[in-house]
Design brief:
The chain is of the alpha+beta class. It has one domain (26-147): RutC-like (60s Ribosomal Protein L30, Chain: A). Helix content is 30%, strand content 28%. The protein has three helices and seven strands. It has helices at 5-11, 61-83, 108-123, and strands at residues 29-32, 35-41, 44-45, 48-49, 89-100, 130-136, 145-153. The strands form two sheets. It has a five-stranded mixed beta sheet with strand order 1-2-7-5-6. A two-stranded antiparallel sheet has the order 3-4. Helix 2 (61-83) crosses helix 3 (108-123). It is globular and about 45 Å long. It starts with a helix and ends with a strand.
């Protein structure tokens, strides 16, 4: 029997962080007709952005990829809170990864792998989404990485 995503989290020694609280006039997750859109998520600890700055200048590529993985967990936490369980997710349709980059950095797709590789580890092929990886001049609160999801659920 194939393990559920919740069981896979435990097998990998991972835990979902607390669900995000909106820092503005938006909802962390919007559900409609078995689709769930997760607002852009960043990683914070103790109320501060973890590893702020531009990837390549202040944040090394390997750190940014790890941040994308942690940000993916944050977005899963938002889905877990909205759906009652991540086990209700049928498929990830689209993942957008925004990377705050220094001029000339052309590898945001490698940073984005941190987010999508985690989804594949947890959900198998249902976790392999269409994806966009975009280099940005700046992100909210000087975060290095921001991730958003579109998923279907039952």
């Amino acid at each position: 029997m194939v393990p559920t995503p919740t069981e896979r989290l435990k097998e990998l020694g991972l835990e979902l962080p607390p669900p995000p609280k909106p820092a503005g006039a938006y909802s962390p997750v919007v559900k409609w007709n078995h689709l769930a859109w997760v607002s852009g998520q960043i990683v914070t600890e103790g109320g501060k952005v973890l590893s702020p700055g531009h990837v390549d200048a202040e944040v090394p590529l390997d750190v940014a990829k790890a941040l994308a993985r942690r940000t993916a967990l944050q977005a899963l936490s938002a889905l877990n809170a909205a759906l009652g369980s991540i086990d209700r997710i049928e498929r990830f349709l689209r993942v957008a990864v925004y990377v705050s980059v220094s001029p000339g950095f052309d590898r945001p797709h490698e940073v984005a792998n941190g987010a999508t590789e985690l989804l594949i580890e947890l959900f198998g092929e249902a976790g392999r989404p269409a994806r966009i990886a975009v280099g940005m001049a700046n992100l909210p609160l000087n975060a290095a990485v921001e991730v958003e999801y579109l998923a279907s659920f039952y």
